[in-house]
Each structure stands twice: as structure tokens, then as C-alpha cells.
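2 proteins. here.
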Amino acid sequence: MTPYETMPFHLETERLILRPWAVSDAADFCALLSERGNGTPAVEHIRTSIAELLSATATTGIALLPIQRRDEGDFIGYCGLITGRATVEEPEIAYELFQRVHGRGYATEAAGAVLDAAIATGRKRLWSTVGAWNTPSLRVLEKLGFERDHVSMEDNGEVVWLTRSLP
């Protein structure tokens, strides 16, 4: 375990609920990932991925959480903390939403709740990595107080690394 408090795994905002993964999320998660344009992953593979996410959460005390709209009750994406290209001490904030709900402030709302959850763990800094082409995600992070740290070149293009100090 880490010296940090465990992140809350159930977060609520005015319009959203972020909660732990369930096996029943697999089909929706597949549909979301298929929007990346790389084909649709097999549901069984995603069920395994969900089990791996839950296992990592138990080990690290941080989580990537499904997002549901409060009124509609539908799965619209995910948001949370991951080790990704960072560390458990200074994790990355990550989010991805269905294209059909882009432009409604859901990413900012969910990421703001996760940011508050990260502060509650006692961490001092978060990272985020975003493709340089992804202007909407860069705007979300800017609204949340993230600042550009550096840019790296990866196989899929330029990646912007951003950081946010926590109180």
C-alpha cells in the first residue's frame, strides 16, 4: 500500500455519478473504446480488463471509475486516477466520454470530482497526458488548473504532459 489515503470510489456531482466498475459495464465499455476507430474489443477481453482495473484499485487505492448521468442512468464514459505514464504517488487523471455527450461539460464536471478525490488522498501533484491534437481535453485540463510541463513524441504523435499541484 501507499502512504496516501484511499480515493473515494463513489463520487457524485450535480449531474453525474462515478462508481466502481461492474461486469455489466463491459458492453458499454466496448462501445466506448470502439469510438477510437481501432475496431471493437471482445466483451470477454473487456470483462478481463474490468477485473484488472478492480485489482489495481485494491492495490493502489486509486481508481478509474465509470460515469453515469444521474437523471438518465446511462453509462457515458470513465474518469479517474491511473498510474499510466506516471506513478501511484503522482498519478494521471484520465477520462474518455462517448462522442454523443461531448461539449456538455461532463468531462470537466467528472474530472473536477476526481481532482477533489485526489486532494483528499493527500497527494501533492497530478499528471495528465493528452494528444496534442485533442484541443477539447486540453481545455478541460486548463479549466481545472493544469499547466503544460513538456511535450514528447510517441508512436501516435505528439503528447502534451500537464501537471497540477494539489493543496
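next one coming up
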Amino acid sequence: MQRKIITTADGSKTIHLPDLDEHYHSKHGAVNEAKHVFIDTGFKHILAKNFFNPLHILEIGFGTGLNAFVTFLEAQKINQNIDYVGVEAYPVSIHEARLMKYPEALSEKEKTSIFDALHESPWEQPFEIKSNFIFTKRKQFFVDIRDQNSFDLIYFDAFGARVQPELWTVEIFGKMYNALRPNGVLVTYAAKGSVRRAMQEVGFETERLPGPPGKREMLRATKKDNIGDAN
């Protein structure tokens, strides 16, 4: 499938798939979307509620590595220990990842080796990016996720429901619910009513929040500790 590198509205780059008319990140700003959806409403939100040592994060759709990289940068600012798992069924090549130039876009060019390490680290085993950031890449279809009560925070960054509706179902969100610990949080750029209802059906408490540039709303879902696991 053809992949094209495009520049988004905030000057950062993303990958466009012309055959699907789909982008890896928002064309209104890749970096701005990552910071708003996953850092501001996910990472900072859950850390404000509790102390985690480490904070266990699952990313659904590792893709270009942008979300993992911005999480690394934020964690270093506050010396937060992170155990990060990125799941990806169709990995981006290290060549394509470097074309994104995210360290430069984030004014962190001196940390290019960190960004490269996210892509060059071995699959299926923990890798120490830095002493307080342990990273594991899993090459896996989302339907095959079987984690139970393992994560505090999920970044749900799958391709949109328009092109991959099977990733936004009750079945998939049941797996996300089971993967979270009690009071764990899932954040996603999506805000469709069908997505919110699927989350609620498996037991999530959902919130509609202001979206990143180009989107009116997004969703945050919380696994309340008084609700049993989804089937």
C-alpha cells in the first residue's frame, strides 16, 4: 500500500495512505494532536489523580512512534518511571520513521537517538530506553490482545472507524477494559456515538472532552473499580 509523507498544519509530518484516504495523525497537526489527546487528557490527567511507580501504558497503534516519544519527553521532565508497551500489526520502517523528523519538530534534536531506539529496539521483549523508561514493542493484531489488569493508561490510536470499523467494536473495547487496572483510563481522538456506546457497553464511564485542532470532541473512558471485567 502506497505511503506518502505529508506536512500537517502545525509543521510536523505524518504518513498519508492514499488508497484509504487515511492519515497516521491529524492533518491539522500531528504533534498538537499527540500532545492534546494523549499527554494532556491522558498522561497528565491520570498522574494528577495518583502516584505510579512505574506508570504502565499500553499504546494501541504504535505507528510512527510519536506518542511514545512525546511520552518519554514528558516523563523526563518530572522523572516519572514508565513501563510502555506499544502494539503494532503493521510496523513502520526505521527509514519512514526518520523521515518524520519528530525530534526536530519538538525542538529535541539532541534526543534523536532516543527516537531511533524506539524503532530499533527488539520486538517482544522489554528494552531500556533510559533507566526510567522501559519500552516493549509487540507485533500483534489488536483482536489478539489478552492482557488482564496490567495497565494504568491506554492510548487508543487505531486507524479511524471509517476505514477499520472492526477496531472500534464492543469486542475490542472489552479487551481494553480487561487490560486496564481499576480506575485505569483510556483516551482516544475519536468521539463517534457508536464508539462511546461500545465503551459504555463493556463497563467504561465515558467523558466527551474538547478535541485537538480540527476536531470538536474526543473521548476519555475510565474503568471504575466497582465494576467487574468485561466478557
